[in-house]
Amino acid sequence: MAYDEGLAERIRQRLGADPDVAEKRMFGGIAFLLRGNMAVGVTGDDLMVRVGPDATDAALARPGARLFDMTGRPMKGWVVVAGSAVTEDEPLGEWIEEGYAFASGLPAK
Known about the structure:
The protein is an alpha+beta fold. 29% of the residues lie in helices and 32% in strands. α1 (5-15) crosses α3.
């Protein structure tokens, strides 16, 4: 499955040259990992965000968000945001910051 390279590039620009961030192909797209833990990614035209179990309900209340479910088993703590909901830099930046903040609280892998 191809992924939106333009969205991936916007994420790269937002994350800058953080030496703790690495890219890895995952879920048919690309993931951005902070010290080995996924923070955000792109699958198809959509943004994946790791928000954590405690923030899932609040994240799902935001425009374009749905549970991450690729196998028929939804993953609490992960959401997918429709690409149409992150066409502007502000909402994209908010989602990236949320994913980065959650991943930064996890032990490095």
